[in-house]
């Protein structure tokens, strides 16, 4: 029994340690399959995205380490690519995608603010609240509906393997008193988005990054049963930025998924996503 993790960030983006440090920790934590998915370059600079000039170094360091550790762990080269509606999608012209084993698509940014910057749903709450007032007159329901509208547009565009942290807007949204993640309208829009993921044959990430700090996953645990009912393939990723967090929350989440009825997780084998059985102690490779 062992683990896998396909969503991780190293010092090529906003991760806090080198690729090799993450590999060493992965080995220590009995991770058999490990993927690097740095935030892909964008046409503008942020403190968390990889710079375009560093992309070749990212690839070269990965292949050096893949060769070095080939007998100990299966390593994969990926990217977490942003979809920004009517601005950039996964099939962008900034770089060649042929070298990558897989792509995670995520929505971090929504619409433009008056200053020309894009409003991000994944920053601090002060900035989130300011953008919410500016773009949606403080109406969190309108903002959430717009977020999932953009997410569904991303899904329909395609060009990637996996949807990352599906309902990430709920992290800051839950700090707004008007937001209730058990509301019928919220369940409906998330359900519609999951149906699109199923329709387009994509993998859904169960993201455990906030299990220990906030007690939540993305998507929220209340949607596990619907994901299972729709027979959407899943992977469990920790979205780690620190090596110590490579398997954070895995045992609890694996157990919850097993209790929901899931029997398999998707794993990357020779370029193809294949189902493997699991239980709360790991994957049965």
Please report the first level of CATH classification, the CATH class. Answer: Alpha Beta
Helix content: 25-40%
Query: What is the 3D form?
Result: globular
Distance between the termini: 7 Å
CATH architecture: Alpha-Beta Barrel
Biggest sheet features: 7 strands, parallel
Brief account:
This protein is 34% helix and 21% strand.
Describe the structure.
The structure is a single chain. The protein is an alpha/beta fold and 285 residues long. The protein has a single domain, classed as TIM Barrel (Alpha-Beta Barrel), CATH 3.20.20.140. It has helices at 19-28, 55-68, 125-136, 140-157, 169-173, 184-199, 211-214, 224-230, 250-260, and strands spanning 3-5, 31-39, 74-82, 102-106, 109-112, 118-120, 162-163, 203-207, 234-237, 264-269, 272-279, 282-283. The strands form 3 sheets. Strands 1-2-3-4-7-8-9 form a 7-stranded parallel sheet. Helix 4 packs parallel to helix 6 (184-199). The radius of gyration is 18 Å and the shape is globular.
């Amino acid at each position: 029994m062992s683990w896998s993790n396909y969503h991780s960030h190293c010092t090529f983006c906003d991760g806090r340690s080198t690729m090799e440090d993450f590999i060493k920790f992965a080995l220590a934590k009995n991770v058999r399959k490990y993927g690097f998915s740095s935030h892909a370059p964008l046409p503008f600079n942020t403190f968390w995205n990889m710079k375009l000039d560093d992309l070749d170094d990212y690839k070269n360091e990965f292949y050096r380490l893949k060769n070095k550790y080939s007998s100990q762990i299966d390593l994969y080269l990926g990217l977490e690519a942003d979809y920004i509606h009517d601005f950039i999608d996964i099939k962008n012209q900034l770089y060649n995608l042929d070298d990558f084993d897989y792509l995670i698509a995520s929505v971090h940014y929504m619409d433009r603010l008056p200053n020309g910057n894009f409003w991000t749903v994944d920053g601090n709450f002060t900035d989130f609240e300011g953008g919410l007032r500016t773009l949606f007159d403080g109406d969190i329901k309108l903002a959430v509906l717009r977020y999932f509208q953009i997410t569904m547009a991303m899904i329909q565009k395609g060009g990637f393997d996996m949807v990352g942290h599906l309902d990430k807007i709920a992290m800051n949204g839950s700090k707004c008193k008007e937001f209730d993640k058990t509301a019928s309208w919220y369940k409906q829009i998330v359900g519609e988005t999951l149906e699109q993921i199923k329709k387009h044959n994509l993998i859904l990430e169960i993201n455990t990054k906030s299990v220990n700090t906030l007690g939540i996953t993305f998507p929220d645990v209340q949607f596990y049963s619907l994901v299972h009912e729709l027979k959407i393939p899943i992977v469990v990723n920790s979205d780690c930025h620190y090596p110590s967090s490579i398997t954070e929350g895995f045992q609890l989440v694996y157990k919850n998924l097993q209790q929901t009825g899931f029997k398999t997780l998707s794993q990357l084998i020779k370029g193809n996503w294949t189902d493997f059985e699991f239980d709360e102690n790991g994957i049965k490779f």
